Amino acid sequence: MTQEEKLYQERLHRSLERCEIHLSRIHSAQRRLSEIFDIDEEKYNSFTEDDISHLDQLIYRFSKLQDEIGSNTFKFLLIGLGEDIEGKAFKDMLNRLESLKIIISVGDWMRLREIRNMMAHEYPTFVQDTIEKLNLFYNSIPALEEVYMNIVGTIKNYNL
What we know:
CATH topology: Four Helix Bundle (Hemerythrin (Met), subunit A)
Strand content: under 5%
Number of helices: 6
CATH architecture: Up-down Bundle
Low-confidence stretches: none
């Protein structure tokens, strides 16, 4: 293994460590919020400060996990697999990740990004819209976790 390959492998593993932290915080917040999902108007109107705090943590950690995977983990994984990603568009990398079965589809990954971006904006006056977005967001967490688990499985399979 060359020095450069070792460097990318170290970066991949540091990225995974950050992902693990985010995922751990996501699981913690999910446990605390399990009783309020799926949210309806009655539950929404009875949110406690703790509920809101855990929900904020959940949204923040989802965003951080999705960012870490998309910005770092994918790149270092593909390099570790011997892929030439120099000058490649992100969508080309996603296409390769789809063919490797790390992501289900490019469209699914893009939807996770859209959901992350959607959750960054708060419009508390549109209660029903907010409820729908929160439920969509919460129900998308397993898809993001599946991507992470596929990455971990690939790393084990290829001994990276």
